[in-house]
Amino acid sequence: MNLKRLIGFLLLSALVGATLSACAKSEGGGKKSFLQVGEFAINRISPARTEVTDGSGRKLVLIPRNAPLPGDCDPSQVIRVPVKSVVAYGDFDVATLAVLGVLEETLVGVTRPEKRWYRDDVKRCFRSGRIVYLGEPNSLDYEQLKQQQPELVLTWDPSVIPMLDELKIPAVVTSTPVAMCLNARMGFVKFLAPFFNREKEAEAYFRRVNDALTALRARSAKSRDKKKVMWGDIYEKRVLVEPGNAWVGELLKYAETDYLFNDVYGTSCIEISVERFLTSGEDADVYFTYRGRSSGVTSKEALARVNPLVKNIRPITHGTVYLPLPHYSQSGDRLDEIFTELAAIVHPDVYPGYRLKFFEELPATEPADKGKPL
Predict the structure, then answer these.
(1) Edge-to-edge strand order for the sheet containing 107-110?
(2) What does the angle CA 279 – CA 233 – CA 96 come to, to the nearest 5 degrees?
(3) Domain 31-197 identical in fold to domain 226-361
(4) Distances, alpha carbon 334 to alpha carbons 71, 179, 340, 351, 357, in Å
(5) How far is residue 326's CA from residue 323's CA, in Å, rounded to a whole number?
(6) CA 292 from chain center: how many Å?
(7) Are the C-beta atoms of 141 and 135 separated by less than 8 Å?
(8) What residue stretches are annotated with the Fe/B12 periplasmic-binding domain (predicted)?
(9) Mean pLDDT computed over every residue of the chain
(10) Which residue in 12, 143, 226, 335 is deepest, having the highest Cβ count within 10 Å?
């Protein structure tokens, strides 16, 4: 590694270290009583009271299960911990419960039917009858929700809060107005941990993921190639991409790539113009599409048929295209492995022989035996 690159790597290491301390900032010294992870915050007032801020800015108070209700806040803002029963909207929320070791003992409802789950722990809970499907997020069965008697709902949809307040079911908004940065994605487990008294498990997981990030940065710095990467897709009426402030964008930068939507800022799956997408596609080496196998995409050729506008972008004609495997979105408890895989995809020269677990590289054309009887 030449001197210029070494200096750049050391500066980047310092920057990442600062970023991972907090996307915004943390306060206090020694054993912190305040922790901020992206838009989320935890303020430990006393052993009997912890104040938290969710992704929508709502203030909630955590108290022990046997403690009296505090007199200075509305009962709808109070959550007794450790929480014993949870309904979760999002795949990442479910995976975070698994990290904390509470999924099979607390999860009672989800918004994805059993046949669309790939996690063994969730499928076991469906078979035992502990978990029920409550309907799609935009058409939730609130009667069934009440029957499950959750002590907490984890939702990415702030619009359901008034209904949940009416039902007297505490809720936490786990989405944010802008995309989760890398630190927030890694540290979200620390935000949920106090709801279940599982801070040690959260800290151990964060260290594991951070160690993987440190390792991939060091290995990526040895790569001979700095690929140009894009992540998103063109749909019938919209063009959506991952912005540079999203965890994906930040990770790809730390992995020594040129992320072509680095200058785009906002929410995950943010909309941009077709022209901008195609212009970036002229330079890209690697393209990650949102589309999965269920959309009929099994090769570059098939992707070009499904989405003719992308047929001439460079990853289709001369580069590589990757799509997420069905279980990818439900694997948020394996961030260390996902981060490593993304680094291996963009730097195959320093990850020789790596076998993909979460993504699939599209072949140029359909397999010759596709459609033939076995």
Answers:
(1) 132-133, 107-110, 86-88, 152-155, 171-173
(2) 130
(3) yes
(4) 41, 19, 10, 19, 11
(5) 9
(6) 17
(7) yes
(8) 85-354
(9) 91
(10) 335
Query: What pTM value is reported for the model?
Result: 0.89
Level-2 CATH architecture, domain 226-361: 3-Layer(aba) Sandwich (3.40)
What per-residue confidence (pLDDT) applies to 8? Answer: 46
- Contact in structure between 185 and 246 (CB atoms under 8 Å): no
Average pLDDT over residues 303-319: 95
- Which strands form 49-53's sheet, in the order they lie side by side? 34-37, 40-46, 49-53, 59-64, 78-81
Q: What residue spans define the domains of the chain?
A: 31-197, 226-361
Helix (H) / strand (E) element for 260: namely none
Q: What share of the chain has pLDDT > 90, as a percent?
A: 85
Question: What is the pLDDT averaged over residues 200-227?
Answer: 97
User: What residues contact 106, with CB distance under 8 A and at least 6 apart?
Assistant: 83, 84, 85, 86, 97, 196
Q: List pLDDT tens digits, range 150-192.
A: 999 999 999 999 999 999 999 999 999 999 999 999 999 999 9
Place of tokens 């961030």: 335
CATH of region 31-197: 3.40.50.1980
Angstrom distance (rounded) from CA 100 to CA 98 = 5
CA–CA gap between residue 128 and residue 202 (Å, rounded): 27
